[in-house]
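Morning, I've got a small favour to ask if you have a moment. I'm working through a protein record and want to make sense of it properly. The fold is given in discrete form, as structure tokens running alongside the sequence. Can you walk me through what the tokens say about the fold? Thanks so much in advance, here it is:
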Amino acid sequence: MKKWIFTLLFVSFIVVGCSQEDNDIDIEQLEAEYEELLEKIEEKELEYEQLVEEVEQLRQELEEPGGDSEPNDESDPNGDNGENGQEEEPAEEPVEGIDGSITLDQGYYIIGADLPSGSYLAQADGAEGLLSIRGPDGTTKYENIVSNEGVSIELEQGDTFEIEVSTTLTVE
């Protein structure tokens, strides 16, 4: 019986010793992976900082009086170049109504350059159509169908406002 106990203890020590070596290897591997992840995080932080600087530079260019506030010919501000691959043209100038409302043709507008920022009631002048608001970074802030009943919207400096149908904006 003592032989069995001694054998069992010996086998247990070997198993524990081997598993300790495996744990050491696992820890070393995990530490190496952790270091790689830290390096990737640093790279992404640097990329993020560069993108933030670019966005700030573009915002300053938009806000400069007499600056190039017209969309360039290379791409439209929301980055999709239209549904059929053709570039979209900026819409015609807004027409102000007697009551202070603004009538807009189908197209896209840059807030601060083409339209003043503010809170508006947007109403379609006939058929319903899609209304989209994108932030300066191109992310969609609001997207909905506009009808003659109207929807309340908030337009902020640097946003892009796009409509598929003639729409009247009334200051709220």
